[in-house]
Design goal:
The structure is a homodimer.
Chain A (H helix, E strand, L loop, with lengths): L1 H19 L27 H11 L3 E5 L5 H12 L1 H10 L1 E5 L17 E5 L25 H12 L7
């Protein structure tokens, strides 16, 4: 009897919380994630300002990923990058990560223009690593799924901080 | 037999996808949401730049919410605001929404200093509505849980766009 009472109570609590919540006219939505599919297990910064602060205070390089929802090249790269455990582990342990669907006001983040997908590394000393480039001379910070090895070696480059080169 | 085969196949698919994913050393994490608890059903902008663009292109006022994870006042306000269906509906239908745990470089968003929680409205004509204030003269854009009615009437004020006053 005690048990049954508890079940009813639980059911009521669950029901009231389910009925109590705001549901849009168009139906319930899946909450947006900050990862946007680029790695649900990573701790993503929300803004460039936040990311820079983390990079400086943790002395870790920052990887900024520019992408768009309706860009098939972004989707292809995202699939490969999010499923590569080696890259995910490195990003989790050695980098500060930020993915943006919107350009910032800082022009240093678009050394050769604004396009997606685009990956820019920033040293914790606040220097944009314009020297770390991909394979394409017309879009130097673009990567395709086939370039994942190059991306990994570029991440290794970014891990060698500028200060340590002095 | 057919059914059993399908179950095994399904189980294998589930297992392989579960085993295949990167899991941090510290254990699996809950993916971060952009809502950060302020309304899981709302469409949140990620950055101030994105929010401004949405406000302008949709001709809707923007509400910017500054808060911090380790601030009890933020938590209290969040609880009230996220559970108020009237506010959630208004935010969903009539506003562009942005919540930030980090200050932007735009000083117009901190008319009387940087503190949390702080709610600033921005007109789609890109004017920060410094005239829409709360109850406290020393922190004019702060709201406490008891101020939720005032917040609602301030939202109504923000909905009356500056252009329409001309």
């Amino acid at each position: 009897m005690m048990k049954a009472g508890l079940s009813v109570l639980l059911a009521l609590v669950v029901m009231s919380s389910a009925f109590g919540k705001y549901v849009p006219k168009s139906g319930k939505r899946i909450p947006q994630t900050l990862s946007r599919g680029w790695g649900d297990q990573l701790i993503w910064a929300q803004t460039y300002e936040e990311a820079l602060y983390w990079a400086r205070s943790r002395n870790k390089p920052l990887m900024v990923l520019f992408h768009l929802e309706d860009c098939p090249h972004s989707h292809e790269l995202r699939k490969v990058l999010s499923e590569d455990n080696g890259i995910q582990k490195m990003l989790d342990e050695d980098f500060v990560v930020l993915n943006l669907m919107y350009e910032t006001t800082d022009k240093h983040l678009s050394p050769d223009g604004q396009y997606v997908p685009r990956i820019i590394f920033v040293d914790p000393a606040m220097t944009v690593r314009a020297d770390i480039v991909g394979r394409y001379s017309n879009r130097m910070y673009a990567y395709e799924p086939a370039d994942i090895k190059l991306l990994k070696s570029n991440m290794e480059k970014a891990k060698k901080l500028l200060k340590s080169e002095l």
